[in-house]
Amino acid sequence: MGRIYAGILGSLAMAMVIGRGLVGSGGVExxxxxxxxxxxxxxxxxxxxxxxxxxxxxxxxRAGLQQQxxxxxxxxxxxxxxx
Length: 83
Prior knowledge:
Blueprint: H1 2-23, H2 28-82
Helix pairs in contact: 1-2
């Protein structure tokens, strides 16, 4: 998920800076330099956010699965005690 976020945020940042350069009639060298720097910075930010998001999803699924397994184990013990 980190690579996906990095690609999306980096590309979006680069497109925004290039668009700003086109609208503002900025110089080509300055615009492309700023776009490349924003691409790198937002790609790193996207990778970090994607990694955190993946860990959050994994932990949530793990906790839900553990809760279900515990619930079923308690039900099985209860049925055995009754029988």
